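Narrative of activities, Objective 1.

The group set out to show that a structural description can be obtained from nothing but a protein's sequence at a throughput compatible with the screening campaign. Below is one input-output pair from the validation batch, recorded exactly as produced.
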Amino acid sequence: MKKSDYAQWSKAATEWSAEYLNNIDQFPVRAQTAPGDIAKQIPDAPPEASETMESIMDDFARIVPEGMTHWQHPRFFAYFPSNAAPAAMIAEQLAGSMAAQCMLWQTSPSATEIEVRMVDWLRQAVGLPEDFKGVFQDTASTATLCAVLTMREIALDWRGNQEGLSNLPTTRVYASTRTHSSIDKALWVAGMGQNNLVKISTKDDYSMDVDELAKAIKEDRENGLLPAGIVVCVGGTSMGATDNVREVCELAKREGLYTHIDAAWAGSAMICPEYRHLWEGAELADSIVLNPHKWLGASMECSAHFVKDPTTLVKTLAIQPEYLKTYGKDGIINFSEWSVQLGRRFRALKVWFLLRAYGLEGLREMIRNHVTWSEELCARLDACDDFEIVTQPILSLFTFRYKPSDSRVELDELNRQLVDAINDDGRIYLTQSVHDGVFVIRFMTGQFDMTHDDINIAFDTIVEIARGLNSQ
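Output recorded for this entry:
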């Protein structure tokens, strides 16, 4: 393809995208293909000669959509959302056209300075104080890894990166049993080891038992171990579990431990003041992560990582060979020193477009609708004698299961079959979890363009398929 052909095919791609988005509700939400169906349509070897864009685009349209799970579908109720608001998509096209590597201020001053401003716009939007600065990481997993590395280095007096961990005290991190698996993985990657992530049980409200946390920290110190930090959960993936942020952070301050809040999903809802009680005390934390690419509409990847003292993050992660130094410019920020990644995309552009195109009030209305509609569906299912609400809505997430009195199948197995049957049907997409040893079905609203009608379809689909399954 010649550069002179770019406008033609860029227009063709835009037209395909617009038609796709306009008709996305006609697709089954989850891909209905079997393993290998897509791969067998792709040649085993790469082409020696160039092919026409016509044939490439034809193959794309014929092969790819059928094998995609459609995350922008208005009835995507699985996992957490991965939204892409149209304004953010436009920004991604523009960023892709420039194809900048935004690792240093000098490699793209606009990217760096807009990122500084957009992180601060988000800070203001969610009500955090001015002493928080931040960076856009790719995902919350990376932000949490950066936080774990920072708490490790602070605890070890900055010796870990230089000396390795083998001859240093064993460092410990604490989190509730309901936190995300990314915290476990962060301990792996940080070289601290799975066994040094201390899982603290939760109370009846699913928050971390702070008395047990204090006891675990005390016992570790007595046993010669080195407590390093605490990961605080706000809106856990399984059913929305949320710790008492203030209580945990106040304990951490007394113990001299670093605190990181994982609010990857729920943090976006803090643009609505009425939901901020969920992380009351967040201003006491050392770092916080929330994902605009989940609930706000900034397409993947875009994770806002707020830090109270950026010097600790930079001291942990910055490495400055001569070829990465910038001379003659004072007071600049090189965001590659705030992350594991050296190469960085222009993530801030889509946040700039997003916040301007919809405004905070537009985004607040969307989130409030999602919460209201989820609560409505929960109430409708609860009114059915053959359904059980296992956990009540936390923001827009709740869990339930089908529990007919005359079931001929063990209930966990019946609900496994129900999830599969719903997803094979294609009208909606749900996922499952295990809550306190019970198999449950998760329901979460959050897709950017969904409407109230989609909630009605969800109710009808769940009830119809469940009762049909039990009658077989």
